[in-house]
Design brief:
Layout lengths: L1 H19 L12 E2 L5 H9 L2 E8 L1 H4 L3 H12 L4 E8 L5 H11 L7 E5 L9 H18 L4 E6 L3 H7 L6 H12 L4 E3 L1 H9 L3 E4 L4 E2 L2 E5 L10 H18 L22 E4 L6 E2 L2 E5 L15 E5 L5 E17 L5 E6 L2 E7 L9 E7 L5 E10 L13 H5 L10 E17 L1
Parallel strand pairs: 2-3, 2-4, 4-5, 5-6, 7-9, 11-19
Antiparallel strand pairs: 1-6, 8-9, 10-19, 12-13, 14-17, 14-18, 14-19, 15-16, 15-18
Helix pairs in contact: 4-10, 5-6, 6-8
Length: 428
């Protein structure tokens, strides 16, 4: 009880100090842009008027019609002789771990010249070792695929980060990502520094359901996702000046640099996203083309098919050699649970339904830190009913009006493996 009161008192103090202006956010002590090795390959290609492919790997903030859209438009205006092709690989509610697993299929297959990576908000609260493993995996996979690919890390902000920055500290996820960026000499841009400065000076309100309040602009409706007309415009202003600074200080002409040694052991380097259709056996399952089902219109950009068990004994079973395994799947009004069996032992029963499941979206789960050996895995749909209306935070009225809410199916879309799949499929 004392701990809870102390936690509440801390947050009350933060709010009071922010309102009175007593707490001075030390944003000025944190760099908005870190040039490091710059973007030499991009700079050279853009000046030549080449065709450039720009990839955006991130979560919902990048998926929004905001800084991603604005930045690409700006690049086209700055380099009118260059043809820019967008690779939009942002998926809401996902972190750098899933980003590392899906990098090959969602980004590298399209041969980007420049990669922006944005996961600081979604990685908040994760173990630093996991963030290091994922972020280094993204960097090394990309550089191994194409040593001339430039990478820039993007950091966004949320309400919780404001409190940390108020004491002159970096949010933990950003601190960890910056260590990886320094190790690989990558540039980074911190959008949140300017947001914190404007909030501190009374020019901006962090959170409100109105875009303008008391004559001031509002950053976001929820403290996380910026309004496109306000918060994302601030993000873009930071992008313009920071990206210009990076280019102005990039080496004139590309310089080949050797890959530094790994930052940590066990980073996600041999990871893959395997679609179930790539496995040899597809019995007992119904395959649905996501693009043809209006329920899934939010997720049809990166995933083509999902699957639904048609028999009570159906399972997604395979063998792999490696240290991590998981599935990307669809969560929504009609999703249920799945049993995880590894090497003949039921390790978990996962509920693939949460407070956001009033609509369909792509999600994922991972089982990590397995022994690096051969494993037999089974994911078994469990269609037993449970009370969806009692899930904390669920919009019960919206769920009740959805015709899928009485269903408890599991909808896998892809298998995630750190290692090598040796055989298996979808079986009865």
């Amino acid at each position: 009880m004392i701990k809870a009161v102390t936690h509440l008192a801390y947050h009350t103090l933060i709010v009071f100090l922010l309102m009175t202006g007593t707490l001075q956010l030390h944003a000025q002590n944190q760099p908005e842009v870190s040039v490091r090795g710059g973007l030499p390959w991009f700079a050279a290609k853009a000046l030549k008027g080449d065709t450039l492919r720009v990839a955006y790997l991130g979560g919902s903030i990048t998926e929004q019609p905001g800084w991603r859209v604005y930045s690409l438009k700006w690049l086209r205006e700055q380099y009118p002789a260059t043809i820019f092709i967008e690779i939009n690989a942002a998926i809401g509610g996902t972190g750098s771990d899933f980003g590392a697993f899906r990098l090959g299929k969602h980004v590298l297959e399209f041969k980007p010249d420049l990669l922006f990576v944005e996961f600081a908000v979604n990685d908040d609260g994760k173990q630093p070792s996991g963030i290091e493993r994922s972020m280094e995996g993204i960097v090394r996979q990309s550089k191994n695929f194409n040593s001339q690919m430039d990478i820039c890390l993007i950091y966004t902000i949320k309400q919780d980060f404001m409190e940390v920055m108020g004491f002159g500290k970096q949010p933990e996820s950003i601190r960890v990502m910056e260590q990886v960026a320094k190790h690989y000499n990558l540039p980074s841009i911190n959008f949140g520094v300017e947001v914190a400065r404007q909030v501190n000076q009374g020019q901006l309100i962090m959170t409100s359901k109105e875009r303008n309040q008391d004559g001031k602009r509002v950053f976001s409706p929820d403290g996380v996702h910026p309004y496109p007309e306000t918060g994302h415009r601030i993000y873009h202003q930071v992008f313009e000046r920071s990206f210009s600074t990076i280019l102005a200080n990039s080496t004139q002409g590309p310089v080949a640099a050797a890959m530094p040694p790994a930052y940590r052991e066990g980073s996600y380097l041999k990871v893959m996203l395997v679609y179930p259709a790539e496995l040899p056996i597809l019995e007992g399952w119904n395959r649905t083309a996501i693009a043809s089902d209006p329920r899934f219109n939010r997720v049809n950009r990166l995933i083509e098919h999902t699957y639904r068990a048609e028999t009570p004994c159906a399972s997604l079973a395979f063998q792999f050699r490696g240290t991590a395994v998981g599935v990307c799947d669809l969560l929504g009004p009609g999703s249920g649970r799945v049993v995880v069996d590894i090497d003949g032992v039921v390790t978990d029963t996962l509920r693939r339904f949460d407070a956001y499941s009033t609509y369909w979206r792509l999600n994922y789960f991972l089982i990590e830190n397995l022994e690096d050996t051969l494993h037999t895995v089974k994911f078994i749909p469990l269609e037993q009913p449970f009370d969806k209306m009692t899930i904390p935070g669920i919009d019960a009225k919206k769920l009740m009006n959805n015709p899928d809410s009485g269903s408890y199916k599991w909808y896998p879309c892809g298998i995630l493996v750190n290692g090598t799949i040796t055989g298996g499929g979808m079986t009865t």
